[in-house]
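Exam revision sheet. Question 4 asks you to relate a sequence to its structure. Input first:
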Amino acid sequence: MKPREIHLHIDELTLHGFAPGDRYRIAEALSAELARIFTEQGLPPACAQSAAMQRIDAGSIQLARPAAGAIGTQAAQAIYGGVK
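Answer key, structure tokens:
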């Protein structure tokens, strides 16, 4: 079975309370974690039904370690959970 190709475009991601200089590390961690989750868990049914989603409310995250990588990873998990 050939793997499906998924193109995900996040137009805007709003995170409050983080240093502007951390944005690239957060984005890289977010991208890597979303790729991992979609590869391991697949496309949620909500995504299969609609090609475009205007808004996803991923809720909030609680950080044990406020490192940029952890922020991106947890944000990706919250986004995937918001899609489900």
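Marking note for examiners. The mean pLDDT is 79.
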